[in-house]
Amino acid sequence: MSLIEEIDFGTPRSKSETMVTLTIDGQSITVPEGTSIMRAAMQMGTAIPKLCATDMVDAFGSCRLCLVEVEGRNGTPASCTTPVADGLVVHTQTDRLKTIRKGVMELYISDHPLDCLTCSANGDCELQDMAGAVGLREVRYGYDGDKHPNPGLDVSNPYFTYDPSKCIVCSRCVRACEEVQGTFALTIAGRGFDSVVSAGMQESFLGSECVSCGACVQACPTATLNEKSVIEIGTPEHSVVTTCAYCGVGCSFKAEMRGEEVVRMVPYKDGKANRGHSCVKGRFAWGYTNHKERILNPMIRAKITDPWREVSWDEAFNYAASEFKRIQQTYGRDSIGGITSSRCTNEETYLVQKLVRAGFGNNNVDTCARVCHSPTGYGLSTTFGTSAGTQDFDSVEHSDVVLIIGANPTDGHPVFASRLKKRLRAGAKLIVVDPRRTDIVRSAHVEAAHHLPLLPGTNVAVLTALAHVIVTEGLADEAFVRERCDWSEFEHWASFVAQPHNSPEATAIATGVDPKELREAARLFATGGNGAIYYGLGVTEHSQGSTTVMAIANLAMATGNIGRPGVGVNPLRGQNNVQGACDMGSFPHELPGYRHIGTDAVRESFESMWGVQLNKEPGLRIPNMLDAAVDGSFKGLYVQGEDILQSDPNTKHVAAGLEAMECVIVHDLFLNETANYAHVFLPGSTFLEKDGTFTNAERRIQRVRKVVAPRNGLEDWQVTLGLAKAMGFEMTYEHPSQIMDEIAALTPTFAGVSYAKLEEMGSVQWPCNAAAPEGTPVMHIDHFVRGKGKFVITEYVATDERTGPRFPLLLTTGRILSQYNVGAQTRRTENVVWHQEDRLEIHPHDAEQRGVRDGDWVRLASRAGETTLRAQITERVAPGVVYTTFHHPDTQANVITTDFSDWATNCPEYKVTAVEVAPSNGPSEWQKAYDEQARQSRRIAHAAEAAE
Fold first, then answer.
1. With CB atoms counted within 10 Å of each terminal CB, which end of the chain scores lower, N or C?
2. Where do runs of H (alpha helix) occur along 361-413?
3. Helix residue ranges per DSSP H, 589-712
């Protein structure tokens, strides 16, 4: 194997459809109008020397290496900033150009430390390459690189270093921070010879606004910015393309390696979801793979109070299977079940639900995807006919107005957020509906046209009020509705939203949103051009989550914003394979492809393939399993890659359910919170150690490729096969590609998907079948999948979770950029530098009333429970609203959340909890007990490591 080399064309691709023909070094070439001479030359295989140019950012023209001669024109223009023209005759290599380039390189080298043999970028340095490319053999000005300004080495960032002595002031890092990431954290300080890159106002990288996305490191042509892993390990010598295992954006990366050691993760420019960009998690936070707390050997114990005992894989499988068989013989066929993971591959998830249905003989299978995005499936399938978003991420480049509701993309989906911010800087307008003033509301060179800071739980009222304005002011797209939707249903819906009680003025009492601001936002969305809606868990994790999704769909249809680039309804999925977990049939009532288990023809196709008879009755969801466990009828659970004790609501109820079970099997990387109640622990494999596919938020199916051998000995799909065989239901596959072939044979939307197609195309978006052999980037172009779009009445119903004298504040929760979900992975990386604990955001007014100061310990109590954490006083939240993240298990935010849920899907209402905040003396007794328990888990891990 070797390093995967990606061509750098020097300047971005032109999007013009007009073509021009020119001649470069005697060869004719035709390219789009607006293409630079540099890029045109590279397309025909001629690499013009360059230092300041790279195709990830716009041309700059400062290094003066890429000069060319153009017949009929004076001088030697820079090829990166000179566009092509019809009939142009260009020469890239003449005696004059050679002399100029050597002179320029002499100046660079005279000002650069010549420590190439010991430099961390030796062999991977563009300055070094260009010296050879221009034939530089001597430097007339000496080699005294010490003259260069050198404020000192900055090693503050945990992942990369900044060595200003090696900077050539090409500005590529500054431009990448501005144009690609959109943070504007870097600048060039000083003038002339004293120029030097500076983070913020000459701060350290760690102390500045830098978000550690890695764009600057990737752009740097020298060792000025370099990964600490490269400095420590050396230059990588081969690479494998795979897919990130964090959020639902689904970024493609090159895992660059030496032997079996990963050196760095470099965003892949051909990745269609991320287009060569990354965030701090995907780029740098992969070190958990080798963390000392990772469990690598199977373990069993008869009781949860017993110590763990390491065993072989066979003994673990046989013990788990014997316990499950015993439980079914004692309590009945329906007394066991399984939970799939949105962090695992499509193939692994498919096998778990197959094991439950065909091996356990019931449909007691559920997934964490239901506790976050099941309202998306219900709402969009009802209105549009499919259970997924309508667009690809490229679509945002065509949007004129973007409405974000219940999502915080700069923290939760940062790579998409960077693309969105770039579009906003180009002139698109933004509407944000969120209780908090998130970064996307106002940040560098980006400001929302309208921020509607609603009270948590009132999404439906706000969306219906927006629709009220659009309908009553005649702003609906009648032509679209008449052609594409059921007109009588639209009329019924329009008469509903037009009622006075749905006006912005009437709903303001409940929502807290300024009616004037809401009216202006509605007019902007209806008349501003291509309108796109993006939403997240702040929409779905409510008692009216499904209603809100349908209200969003109503709004998109009423304004004609469906079926073309730049528009659509786009759920921002939280985890890497939330979409795939849903697609693969992880719900108790649905087989893969969202087909009901009770449909005879559908069930029979699976029975024929699997060779068993399936139960046609839907099974239990997670909360129903826990209820049944407490009641004594559900006694065994297989949990793959999920920590329900930390992630599910009402922690006390989850713990009670787990404690009542007789055999809990946890299949994961670490001894998580759920493992405290487990009897069998099956060690899992990371995304770097397996083959398979993930499906991201835009329905894009992408390959996950094994980079290193699994440290635990088995990939996760092989673990499930081992358990199934011990249960007496043997599944025979040699490779995950065979599992995908079975999925394609049974699932109409995946019918054209195969590993061969994914290798050929890089990725595909379902539906991929005979009707769409290359996939479907944009859905519902000519018609909705269900035929006519369906308008649904969305009456606002206030949540049963109400504030009152005892609990006067509303708590809502979310994520932060550096951490991911329950933090099991990111807490075991250097990302803890940015977020060492969860804090409670509280408005200054509410804090003052309670005598709370910034940094104080506070008691956070609800009707369900209480915890303690430190306060952060901020105006990002409105009076009456408090907010926290849920990344650290010692905070246990879900001790607070109730068991209220969405009326249609049982998705928990995480985002609305009535609470009170009061000063506290520090961590509670149960938190101290947790800390001791965590220390015990670490001792187990360390003992196992020492034994190795």
1. C
2. 370-383, 409-412
3. 600-610, 622-631, 644-647, 651-660
Amino acid at 767: P
Distances (CA, A) of 395 to 238, 272, 779: 33, 12, 12
Task: Give me the amino acid identity at 619.
Answer: G
Query: What is d(CA 722, CA 712) in angstroms, rounded to the nearest whole number?
Result: 14
> SS3 sequence, 315-359?
HHHHHHHHHHHHHHHHHCHHHEEEEECCCCCHHHHHHHHHHHHHH
Q: How many CB atoms lie within 10 A of CB 260?
A: 8
- pLDDT profile of the chain (948 residues), mean per 10: 88 95 96 97 96 95 94 94 95 96 91 88 91 90 72 93 93 96 93 86 91 96 95 94 94 95 95 95 94 95 95 97 97 96 94 97 89 80 91 96 95 95 96 94 94 94 97 96 95 97 96 97 97 91 87 96 96 88 92 94 95 95 93 96 82 90 96 94 96 96 96 96 96 96 96 96 95 94 93 91 90 88 86 91 95 94 89 94 86 74 73 90 68 56 52
Q: Do 227 and 217 contact (CB within 8 A), yes or no?
A: yes
Phi, psi for 385 (deg, rounded to 5): 105, 0
In this structure, what token pair is assigned to residue 173?
A: 């890092």
Please state the length of the chain: 948
pLDDT at 349: 96
Identify the bridge partners of residue 681 per DSSP, sorted by sequence position: 299, 666
Nearest residue to 48 via CA among 97, 15, 2: 97
Residue 207 neighbours by CB under 8 Å, 6+ apart? 156, 199, 200
Give backbone dihedrals phi and psi of 188, rounded to 5 degrees, phi first: -100, 115
User: Nearest 5 degrees, angle CA 891-CA 894-CA 899?
Assistant: 165
Cα dihedral: 704, 706, 708, 714 (round 10): 110
pLDDT of the residue at 147: 65
Helix (H) or strand (E) holding 354: helix 346-354
The total of other beta-carbon atoms located within 10 Å of residue 369's CB is 29
Report, in this order, helix, strand and coil percent for the chain, each rounded to 5: 35, 20, 45
Q: Residue 798 has which token pair?
A: 């206030």
Q: How far apart are CA 457 and CA 729, in angstroms?
A: 45
Measuring CA to CA, how many Å separate 283 from each of 35, 563, 865?
30, 33, 37
- Closest Cα to residue 369, out of 178, 567, 641? 641
- Please compute, for residue 4, the number of CA atoms within 13 A of its CA located in the half-sphere on the CB side: 15
Read off the DSSP letter of residue 145.
G
Intra-chain end-to-end CA distance of the chain, in Å:
30
Distance CA 176, CA 248 (A): 23
Q: Of 846, 814, 906, which is closest to residue 627 (Cα–Cα)? A: 906
Interaxial angle between packed helices 459-472 and 545-558, expressed in degrees from 0 to 180 and rounded to the nearest 10: 20
- Angstrom distances, CA of residue 656 to CA of 287, 652, 896: 34, 6, 16
Dist CA 831 CA 251 (whole Å) = 19
Query: Please, is 859 exposed, middle or buried when counting C-beta atoms within 10 Å of its C-beta (0-12, 13-18, 19+)?
Result: middle
Q: How many other C-beta atoms are found inside a 10 Å radius of the C-beta of residue 475?
A: 16
Which regions of 633-789 does DSSP assign to beta strands (E)?
636-640, 663-668, 680-683, 692-695, 700-704, 763-765
Give the DSSP letter of residue 218.
H
Dihedral in degrees, nearest 10, Cα atoms 201, 204, 209, 214: 130
CA distance 644 to 636: 15
Q: How far is CA 885 from the centre of its chain?
A: 16
Dig out the tokens for 37 from the structure.
């001479």
How do beta strands 401-405 and 429-433 pair? parallel
Q: What's the confidence (pLDDT) of residue 802?
A: 85
Residue 540 backbone dihedrals phi, psi, to 5 degrees: -85, -35
**Alpha-carbon radius of gyration of the chain:** 29
Task: Sort 145 into a burial class: Cβ within 10 Å, 0-12 / 13-18 / 19+.
Answer: middle
Rounded to the nearest 10 degrees, what angle do helices 504-511 and 459-472 cross at?
Answer: 170
